[in-house]
């Protein structure tokens, strides 16, 4: 296990893990938990596939159906949480993000990159989460109008490493990611 003494080295390590989530289908960073809140509901957590990560611009991207409940929650409050647990390296990554929702023509370049057989995920009828009379009483036809790109602008990152001695740190955009150690 690495012994991190420098805040920037610790953050570099975490970003390397996040980037692997895009490249390596087996990395747990490929499937973060995405958490939304709303004023009159319980917080809601769900697994999403990470479609892109961009350290330079501090962004992580997901794709979803425009009629899914997360779209409604994000309209009410664009703030969300992202959680990743990487058991091999014993690292937990938590992020606070502000989500920019892209729909319509602006998503065309992203839509072109979605493999044809995956496009059916965007266009289920009835809409995701609707009560149906039996398990397979739904249909799906790909529909770009039902395709949303969620660009998550990272505001803060918190890391917890379970080493012999646990190590925890937080980094914030407003302090230009300089970071500070936290008691674990
Ligand atoms: C491994 C895995 C990957 C998933 N990937 C996505 C995804 O990329 N986009 C998505 O909208 N839902 C994805 N889902 C389904 C979501 O977890 C969730 O059930 C769905 O988006 C509806 O969520 P909502 O009603 O909270 O909006 C995935 C589920 C699993 C188990």
Descriptive report:
The chain is of the alpha+beta class and 184 residues long. The chain has one domain: Electron Transport, Fmn-binding Protein, Chain A (Pnp Oxidase, Chain A). It is built from three helices and eleven strands, in the order αββββαββαβββββ. A hairpin with a 7-residue loop joins strand 10 and strand 11. The radius of gyration is 18 Å and the shape is elongated. The mean pLDDT is 95. Bound molecules: flavin mononucleotide (FMN).
Main traits of this protein?
184 residues; alpha+beta; 9-stranded antiparallel β-sheet; two-stranded antiparallel sheet; 11 strands; 17% helix
What share of the residues does DSSP label as strand, in percent?
Answer: 35-45%
Radius of gyration: 18 Å
Number of β-strand runs? 11
Order of H and E elements: HEEEEHEEHEEEEE
Q: CATH topology, which one?
A: Pnp Oxidase, Chain A
Number of helices: 3
The CATH level-2 architecture is identified as: Roll
CATH class: Mainly Beta
The backbone outline, from C-alpha atoms, is: elongated
Task: Summarize this structure briefly.
With about 180 residues, this protein is α+β, with helices and mostly antiparallel strands. The chain is built from 3 helices and 11 strands, in the order αββββαββαβββββ.
What does the secondary structure layout of this molecule look like, with pairings?
Elements: H1 7-23, E1 33-38, E2 41-47, E3 52-54, E4 59-65, H2 69-76, E5 79-86, E6 91-103, H3 108-113, E7 124-125, E8 139-140, E9 147-161, E10 167-172, E11 180-182
Antiparallel strand pairs: 1-2, 1-5, 3-4, 4-9, 5-6, 6-9, 7-8, 9-10, 10-11
Bound molecules: flavin mononucleotide.
């Amino acid at each position: 296990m690495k012994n991190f003494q420098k805040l920037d080295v610790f953050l570099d390590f975490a970003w390397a893990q996040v980037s692997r989530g895009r490249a390596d289908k087996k990395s747990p960073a490929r499937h973060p938990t995405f958490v939304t809140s709303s004023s009159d509901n319980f917080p809601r957590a769900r697994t999403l596939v990470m479609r892109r990560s961009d350290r330079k611009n501090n962004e992580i991207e997901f794709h979803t159906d425009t009629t899914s409940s997360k779209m409604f929650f994000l309209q009410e409050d664009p703030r969300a949480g992202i959680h990743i647990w990487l058991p091999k390296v014993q690292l937990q990554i938590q992020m606070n993000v502000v989500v920019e929702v892209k729909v319509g023509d602006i998503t065309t370049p992203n839509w072109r990159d979605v493999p044809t057989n995956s496009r059916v995920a965007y266009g289920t009828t009835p809409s995701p989460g609707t009560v149906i009379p039996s398990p397979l009483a739904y249909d799906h036809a790909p529909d770009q109008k039902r395709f949303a790109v969620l660009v998550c602008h990272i505001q803060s990152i918190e890391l917890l490493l379970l080493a012999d001695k646990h190590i925890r740190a937080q980094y914030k955009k407003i302090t230009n990611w300089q970071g500070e150690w936290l008691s674990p």
